[in-house]
């Protein structure tokens, strides 16, 4: 069982193509099914620890994987039962079912077991389960001590994270061959439990990957405050949000943070290391600025629009967040010839790019192409996309991030990575990873100030 950090993500169509490409020479569909069944059996044997296992098999190849796993588990001396929703329909499933020499119980009549292995339906499901199948799955899952899904829990669409009906929550999901989008896209991801990959000998390549620890910029003996990155944070009507972004930029590793606010340097300073000046458009022409963060607490009045326009014409690398996402026009972004990263949550994304029926990965890629910017589409299942099609899907984030100011912290962290010289896609990746790690370090009931402070610790 392989952790999924950094692994490629394949859609249902891409997975089918990868399997077909693997079928050369002596490798057939049956070979891949045997590999999958063997890998499942090894994983389940470790997790079951001798407890009775109930394997639920569907009529297709996912069910075939289940029959093979059940036969192998029985040969290892483990107590195994099989229940089927219906008879096998594919040639592969019929061949696999013939390898199981025990009884096959009707799914709706099956009694629970401590270990439930769901091999009813996997990749490619596009319609809800029959009501009787759905009821039986939920009943058996609720009575099990450990619930394991093969490839995807039955009732989950592969590519968009949608639930096709009522779904039980699983403890472990065993992804076959490659990670699929719904392993990390919501709402399906919240029901997956721990997702682990089982290698079945299929080569997988993709422009989309799961978030993993990135390479972070580090100072050396020749570093100074400007070489580490100068971040300018443009403040507006609500200075607390921009203060959070400035604090986060410093805590994430920026060497110099300039906070440009209407009131200038007067008033209490929450952090003395932040340089505070009164806002002036020509301040953004400072050549040493490595990134401008604009949007947190900016407001939406005439002054805010003027500050946004000044940032756009500066040519400096930009992180556009919050209110600036409500003010900016796609055409203006396209004309900005510097690096740019947009960090919208769901509502801001819809305002800027319109409603779409696309899944989140496809929608974010489209938005990146349309804007010419790296787009960080925030949420419990954040997706990062670049105009060239590269994408990163992020595992479920801490639900405690649902508090005011955490998005401002993310903007500041990304700004620090951009100012340090990372190209925009990698800067966004690094900022999102740091943000998630800081949330994990904070535990529960933290506030945005705690989150920003925690960025320093997770740089280690």
UniProtKB/TrEMBL annotation:
Binding site for AMP: 378-382, 407
Matches recorded under Pfam families: Carb_kinase, YjeF_N
Residues the entry annotates as binding (6S)-NADPHX: 61-65, 122-128, 151, 241, 297, 345, 408
Domain YjeF C-terminal intervals: 208-460
Biological processes per GO annotation: metabolite repair; nicotinamide nucleotide metabolic process
Cofactors required: K(+); Mg(2+)
Cofactor binding notes: Binds 1 potassium ion per subunit.
Keyword match Nucleotide-binding: yes
Keyword match ATP-binding: yes
Record's keyword terms, sorted: ATP-binding, Isomerase, Lyase, Metal-binding, Multifunctional enzyme, NAD, NADP, Nucleotide-binding, Potassium
Catalytic activity: (6R)-NADPHX = (6S)-NADPHX; (6S)-NADPHX + ADP = AMP + phosphate + NADPH + H(+); (6S)-NADHX + ADP = AMP + phosphate + NADH + H(+); (6R)-NADHX = (6S)-NADHX
Residues that hold K(+) according to the record: 62, 118, 154
Subunit structure: Homotetramer.
Function: Catalyzes the epimerization of the S- and R-forms of NAD(P)HX, a damaged form of NAD(P)H that is a result of enzymatic or heat-dependent hydration. This is a prerequisite for the S-specific NAD(P)H-hydrate dehydratase to allow the repair of both epimers of NAD(P)HX. Catalyzes the dehydration of the S-form of NAD(P)HX at the expense of ADP, which is converted to AMP. Together with NAD(P)HX epimerase, which catalyzes the epimerization of the S- and R-forms, the enzyme allows the repair of both epimers of NAD(P)HX, a damaged form of NAD(P)H that is a result of enzymatic or heat-dependent hydration.
Name used for this protein in its record: Bifunctional NAD(P)H-hydrate repair enzyme
Lineage start: Bacteria, Pseudomonadati, Pseudomonadota, Alphaproteobacteria, Sphingomonadales
């Amino acid at each position: 069982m392989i952790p999924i950090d950094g692994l490629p993500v394949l859609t249902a169509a891409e997975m089918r193509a990868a399997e077909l490409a693997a079928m050369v020479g002596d490798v057939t569909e049956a070979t891949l099914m045997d590999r999958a069944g063997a890998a499942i059996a090894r994983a389940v044997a470790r997790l079951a620890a001798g407890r009775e296992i109930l394997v639920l098999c569907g009529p297709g190849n996912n069910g075939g994987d289940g029959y093979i796993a059940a036969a192998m588990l029985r040969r290892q001396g483990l107590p195994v039962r099989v229940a089927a929703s219906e008879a096998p329909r594919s040639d592969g499933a019929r061949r696999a079912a013939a390898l199981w020499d025990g009884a096959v119980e009707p799914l709706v009549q099956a009694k629970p077991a401590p270990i439930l292995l769901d091999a009813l339906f996997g990749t490619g499901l596009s319609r809800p389960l029959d009501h009787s199948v759905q009821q039986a799955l939920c009943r058996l899952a609720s009575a099990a001590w450990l619930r394991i899904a093969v490839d995807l829990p039955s009732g989950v669409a592969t590519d968009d994270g949608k639930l096709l009906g009522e779904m039980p929550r699983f403890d472990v999901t065993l992804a076959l061959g490659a990670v699929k989008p719904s392993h990390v896209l919501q709402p399906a991801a919240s029901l997956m439990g721990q997702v682990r990959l089982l290698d079945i000998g299929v080569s997988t390549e993709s422009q989309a990957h799961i978030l993993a620890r990135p390479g972070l910029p580090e100072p050396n003996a020749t570093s100074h405050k400007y070489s580490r990155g100068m971040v300018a944070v443009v403040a507006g009507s609500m200075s607390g949000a921009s203060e959070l972004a400035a604090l986060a930029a410093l805590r994430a590793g920026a060497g110099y943070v300039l906070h440009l606010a209407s009131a200038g340097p007067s008033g209490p300073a929450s952090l003395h290391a932040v340089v505070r000046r009164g806002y002036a458009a020509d301040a953004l022409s400072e050549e040493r600025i490595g990134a401008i963060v604009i949007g947190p607490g900016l407001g939406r009045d005439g002054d805010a629009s003027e500050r946004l326009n000044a940032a756009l014409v500066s040519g400096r690398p930009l992180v556009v967040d919050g209110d600036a996402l409500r003010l900016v026009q796609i055409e203006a972004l396209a004309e900005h010839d510097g690096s740019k990263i947009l960090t919208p949550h769901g509502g801001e994304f819809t305002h800027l790019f319109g409603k779409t029926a696309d899944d989140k990965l496809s929608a974010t890629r489209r938005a990146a192409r349309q804007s010419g910017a790296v787009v960080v589409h925030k949420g419990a299942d954040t997706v990062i996309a670049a105009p060239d099609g590269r994408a990163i899907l992020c595992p479920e984030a801490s639900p405690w991030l649902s508090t005011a100011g955490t998005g401002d912290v993310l903007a500041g962290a990304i700004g620090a990575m951009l100012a340090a010289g990372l190209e925009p896609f990698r800067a966004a990746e690094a900022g999102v990873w740091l943000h998630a790690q800081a949330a994990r370090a904070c535990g529960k009931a933290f506030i945005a100030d705690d989150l920003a402070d925690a960025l320093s610790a997770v740089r280690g």
